[in-house]
Design brief:
Blueprint (H helix, E strand, L loop, with lengths): L8 E11 L5 E11 L3 H5 L7 H5 E5 L13 H10 L1 H16 L7
Antiparallel strand pairs: 1-2, 2-3
Length: 107
C-alpha cells in the first residue's frame, strides 16, 4: 500500500536566468525546499497571500550579497529571493512543476 505523507517537505532544482548590467544572460541553478500545503488551505487564503510565503522553506546553492557584501542567510535570503522578480518567477515555476510534472496523465 502506498502511504501519502500530507505534511512533507522536499527539495527541487530551480533554474534561474537573469540579465546583467550589459544585457548578457547569466544562468544558474540552485535547490529550493518546498513544503506541501493542502489545497483547501491555499484556496481559503486571502487574495493578497503570496504562494511563496506559504510553500518556500529554504534554499541551497545560491548566494545573495547583503549590505557590505556579506551573504544573506535565513529569512533575509528567502525574502530577497521572493522579492526579486526573476527569482520569484523561477521559484513559482519550480514549485508548480514539482507538483504537476510527474502527476500529469499521459495522452
Amino acid at each position: 500500500m502506498f502511504k501519502l505523507n500530507t505534511t512533507r517537505s522536499y527539495s527541487f532544482p530551480v533554474s534561474l536566468t537573469v540579465y546583467d548590467e550589459t544585457g548578457k544572460e547569466q544562468t544558474g541553478k540552485f535547490t529550493a525546499t518546498f513544503k506541501v500545503v493542502a489545497q483547501d488551505k491555499l484556496r481559503d487564503m486571502p487574495a493578497d497571500t503570496l504562494l511563496l510565503d506559504q510553500v518556500l522553506v529554504g534554499v541551497k546553492g545560491i548566494e545573495v550579497p547583503g549590505e557590505g557584501g556579506k551573504p544573506l542567510e535565513g529569512e533575509e535570503l528567502l525574502h530577497a529571493l521572493k522579492n526579486d522578480p526573476a527569482a520569484s518567477t523561477a521559484l513559482i515555476t519550480a514549485y508548480q512543476e514539482s507538483v504537476s510534472k510527474k502527476n500529469r496523465g499521459r495522452i
